[in-house]
Design goal:
The complex is a heterodimer of chains A (about 475) and B (about 325). By secondary structure, chain A is mainly alpha-helical. Chain A is about 70% helix and about 5% strand. Chain A has helices at about 1-45, 50-80, 85-120, 125-155, 170-175, 180-210, 215-250, 250-255, 290-295, 320-350, 360-370, 370-385, 400, 410-445, and strands at about 160, 165-170, 270-275, 280-285, 390-395, 395-400. In chain A, the strands form three sheets. In chain A, strands 1-2 form a two-stranded antiparallel sheet. A two-stranded antiparallel sheet of chain A has the order 3-4. The radius of gyration of chain A is 24 Å and the shape is globular. Chain B has about 325 residues and is mostly helical. Chain B has one domain. Chain B is built from 14 helices and two strands, in the order H-H-H-H-H-H-H-H-H-H-H-H-E-E-H-H. In chain B, strands 1-2 form a two-stranded antiparallel sheet. Chain B starts with 6 loop residues before the first helix and ends in an 11-residue tail after the last helix. The chains are: A mainly alpha (about 475), B mainly alpha (about 325). The interface between A and B is large, with 67 and 64 residues. The structure holds CIS-heme D hydroxychlorin gamma-spirolactone and protoporphyrin IX containing FE (2 copies). One protoporphyrin IX containing FE binds near residues 334 and 377 of chain A. One protoporphyrin IX containing FE binds near residues 15, 378 and 392 of chain A.
């Protein structure tokens, strides 16, 4: 019982910490490349508006980055404080992957971040752009390594077990494990979407508050275009990802679809209340044969059912159904909302006169959608991670075997402390974003479109 | 394959050395920027900004050495990693919360409206002191063999205070190097006060360590080890004396020698660390687990080592570049 409580509390604590952490990487990964884009456009056009955009968004980047760093440091200690069994059994594989992340990504990001943020007047323009590129490369590398590890936990291969400890036999197989390419693509695209909608949302806020600078126009356009361009790709990538999961983690797909019996002509459920005790769904509303069609590309294709994953003695070997089922729908639903809004805006902007063509309700809709990327990303991770339960490493290590022997009261107290701090920081973060937008909207009302740039020969002024 | 002998023997030593090196680099680098954080309440508003500016471009990379150290513990000595971190559960959590407060305060204090800035200044200070106290406490418990008796706790509280003083001292030395005018004068005064705390701290730990462990007593107080090790305390004493003399003469008219206290303080940290490392080798969990028993599979360590040998020089190179770019007196931190 004691251990059970520690297990539950440790899971909540880990989930809380990683959920908080991922909010900021999803922003910094793509925003780093957007900053590179701004600098590149400025170098090409010498139009000051790109530097204005750069200096506005670099503030958001710096803030998000700091939030990512401090919560990430917490993450790396959690393995030891709460999940000692994880490293003890799969440390030979997780270890080198984490080490490579630290060595090839964290240091590079951290060092060049200083130069990127504060070095503008100290280094030549090319070196500053170089630092910006290296920071973006760093965050992307970091994503690569951590997702290799995470994907390996979902679809492990390239190792052998000796006395309960995993030993690597084939590093190529470990790194290029079956779900890695799909997960990496899906997460990078998710980051692009998060940033696209954040830029669009904050720019819409500034626009509605009356700012009419060239910068806010360019930013709003960029955000809308990013969203509209990436979302179809994301939906396609998500579909491919699901097919891959069907092959390697069928129990997860069964939970996502809320399908109890392995059979053909499985409907695509739009709504249902899975009842895990009765092992059936209530209030089903679905598209006939939809799930079969999506997953097997045939109307009568067979889709795995949850009842296949119950042991003889009644032990349940599939993940909790409700959490996975609903997280998945929140993610896909958010994705659909993104598609609808960004394509509607694109259409209106083409027909009308650019931003001016956007009616107020559309602008207003972009504001809450500024955080739609966060919602979909969290929902997606919940689908993935809860869908892996009861395993920590599929088929190799169960979650309860990895938990540390720490008194429940101790875990509970640190959990409360983290939750309070994270709550306060989230409020502070969002209010600073709003504050930055308002200050910009109040200060930058003068139209600067077409403003000539003095001495526009050199791309970025040195010194 | 046996060119360098049995990797199962030398790899753990190499990784223990790498981990020790990361901790040492961390303690010196984040030590000075935590120290500056602890000193901020002593400066006025403009001085606070300048103090933060003096560490702004560096703190993130400095903290990465902590990630590196815990990462090496995690990857190279998984068995020890769990034991140590679960035993230190609470101080680790306090340190992490301190680091969170501090790291975010850096950004927030520069971006919020003025009235809120004060609250973030407090968070910056509180985070810095929580971090250093927690680290000192962990050091104390570690020295005492990670047991939870009252004497260990008391000793750990003592090391918590002394490490905080030590960080403030090296922080003040950093400010002597990076600040000018009134702030620099203040920093010299802080350093003059801090050096006495350092003397007490180094003394207390040096006395306590051999007393709590007979093994460590024998390592230090047997012949010939005693004479071979004598240079460590002697050099430390000479360094402290030297720093003290220099501090009395600073600041000089043309700002020469402003770098000396910081260099001296760093050297002092290195010596103290070497003494500690010698006391504990080859244990990674004091008296319980040696580095050999705790190490990962040699094949996995080898993979990391190959990467480390290529990457660490590169990291050193671009870190040096960053310090070079931001050399000289601290200026206001500006994005443009
Ligand atoms: C999809 C991307 C992603 C995911 C799933 C994670 N991280 Fe992360 N992490 C990043 C992407 C990232 C990043 C983009 O590289 C960050 C965010 C901001 C930053 O500084 O780098 C980062 C920062 C960051 C840092 C601070 C690095 C520094 O000092 O610069 C640490 C220690 C970690 N992370 C550790 C973890 C651990 C242990 C994770 C999993 C259990 C984890 N991260 C999940
Ligand atoms: C970044 C986005 C991520 C999110 C939002 C996330 C979320 C979660 C959630 C909600 C759980 C709890 C599942 C449950 O217990 O029912 C979990 C478990 C876990 N995840 Fe992730 N995860 C993420 C990424 C990762 C990565 C990259 C790793 C490791 C490389 C990882 C390692 C783990 C571990 C060790 C557990 C077991 C602890 C537990 O069950 O709570 N996660 N994660
Ligand atoms: C709309 C169509 C989408 C589909 C069909 C889809 C599909 C999927 C599937 C099947 C998974 C689970 C993979 C597994 O663990 O096996 C997943 C995970 C995830 N999704 Fe989506 N997704 C969609 C949209 C989005 C959007 C819009 C975002 C964010 C902006 C997003 C972010 C994520 C993230 C972060 C994960 C967890 C990481 C991973 O396993 O890839 N998804 N998605």
């Amino acid at each position: 019982m004691e251990m059970m409580d520690t297990l539950l509390l440790s899971r909540i604590q880990f989930a809380a910490n990683i959920s908080f952490h991922i909010l900021f990487p999803t922003i910094t990964i793509a925003l780093g490349w957007v900053l590179v884009f701004f600098k590149w456009r400025y170098a090409r056009t010498s139009d000051q508006v790109w530097m204005d955009a750069y200096f506005f968004w670099v503030k958001v980047f710096a803030l998000s980055f700091a939030m990512g760093v401090v919560s990430g440091i917490t993450m790396s200690f959690q393995f030891g404080t709460n999940w000692p069994g994880f490293m003890e059994s799969v440390g030979n594989i997780a270890g080198p992957l984490l080490a490579y992340e630290i060595m090839t990504a964290f240091f590079m990001e951290a060092v060049f971040l200083g130069i990127m943020l504060f070095g503008f007047s100290r280094v030549p323009g090319w070196a500053h752009t170089g630092a910006t590129v290296l920071v973006a490369v760093g965050t992307t590398m970091s994503t690569f390594w951590i997702l290799v590890l995470n994907s390996w936990m979902h679809t492990p291969q390239g190792f052998e077990m000796r006395d309960g400890v995993a030993y690597a036999t084939d590093w190529f197989a470990i790194i290029f494990n079956p779900s890695m390419p799909y997960r990496l693509a899906h997460v990078l695209l998710a980051s692009g979407l998060t940033v696209g909608f954040l830029i669009a949302g904050m720019s819409a806020l500034r626009w509605v508050m009356g700012e009419r600078s060239a910068e806010v126009r360019k930013s709003l356009r960029l955000g809308v275009i990013m969203g509209a361009a990436i979302i179809p790709v994301q939906i396609y990538a998500g579909d491919m990802h699901g097919l891959n999961t069907l092959e390697y983690q069928p129990a997860k797909v069964a939970a996502m679809e809320g399908n109890w019996e392995t059979q053909g002509n499985v409907p695509l459920l739009l709504f249902a209340l899975p009842d895990e005790d009765a092992r059936e769904n209530r209030f089903e509303i679905g598209i006939p044969s939809g799930a079969s069609l999506i997953l097997t590309h045939r109307l009568d294709g067979e889709v795995p059912g949850l009842n296949d994953f119950v042991a003889e003695d009644g032990t349940i070997l599939h993940p909790p159904v409700n959490a996975v089922f609903w997280s998945f729908r929140v993610m896909v639903g958010t994705g659909m909302a993104m598609l609808a809004l960004s394509w509607a805006a694109l259409f209106l902007m083409r027909r009308g006169r650019g931003i001016e063509g956007l009616p107020r309700p559309v602008l207003w809709a972009f504001m809450p959608m500024a955080f739609s990327g966060w919602l979909a990303t969290l929902a997606g991770w919940y689908t993935t991670e809860i869908g892996r339960q009861p395993w920590l490493v599929t088929g190799v290590l169960s979650t309860d075997a990895a938990v540390g022997d720490v008194a429940p009261a101790l875990v509970a107290s640190t959990l409360v402390a983290y939750l309070m701090i994270y709550g306060a920081l989230l409020v502070a973060y969002v209010s600073v974003l709003v504050y930055l937008a308002r200050r910009k909207a109040k200060g930058g009302t003068a139209p600067v479109a077409g403003r000539p740039v003095s001495g526009a020969i050199q791309s970025i002024p040195a010194e | 394959m046996t060119l360098f002998g049995d990797p199962a023997v030398w790899l753990p030593v190499v990784f223990a050395a790498l981990m020790g090196l990361s901790i040492l680099i961390y303690v010196v680098l984040d030590g000075f920027d935590l120290g500056v954080g602890i000193l901020t309440p002593l400066g006025n508003e403009a001085e606070k900004d300048r103090m933060v500016a003096s560490i702004g471009p560096f703190w993130d990379a400095n903290e990465t050495w902590l990630v590196m150290a815990v990462g090496l513990l995690l990857v190279a000595f998984p068995a020890a990693h769990g034991t140590i971190l679960t035993a230190l559960y609470l101080p680790v959590a306090i340190m992490l919360i301190g680091l969170i407060l501090r790291g975010t305060a850096f950004e927030f204090r520069a971006k919020v409206a003025l009235p809120k800035k004060n609250a973030w200044n407090v968070a910056f200070f509180a985070g810095s002191i929580m971090t250093s106290m927690a680290q000192g406490y962990m050091l104390g418990l570690y020295v005492m063999g990670l047991d939870n008796s009252w004497t260990s706790q008391a000793f750990a509280l003592l090391t918590a205070v002394f490490l905080t003083v030590g960080y403030s001292f090296i922080g003040a030395c950093w400010l002597i190097l990076k600040a000018e005018g009134e702030l620099q004068l203040k920093a010299v005064r802080w350093a003059r006060g801090g050096i006495w705390g350092v003397v007490l701290g180094v003394g207390a730990i040096s006395l306590a360590t051999p007393l709590v462990s007979t093994r460590i007593w024998e390592r230090w107080f047997s012949i010939p080890e005693f004479f071979l090790l004598a240079p460590l305390p002697l050099m430390s004493a000479a360094l402290i004396l030297g720093i003290w003399v220099v501090l009395r003469r600073l600041p000089t008219a043309n700002d020469s020698f402003a770098w000396l206290p910081f260099a001296g303080a760093s050297a002092l940290f290195v010596l103290a660390f070497t003494g500690l490392a010698y006391s504990f080798y080859p244990y990674v969990v004091p008296e319980k687990l040696t580095i050999y028993a705790a190490a990962s599979a040699p094949e996995s360590l080898m993979i990391i080592l190959v990467g480390a040998l290529i990457v660490i020089p590169v990291i050193a190179g671009y870190s040096a570049l960053a310090y070079y770019i931001f050399r000289g007196k601290a200026r206001d931190l500006r994005y443009d």
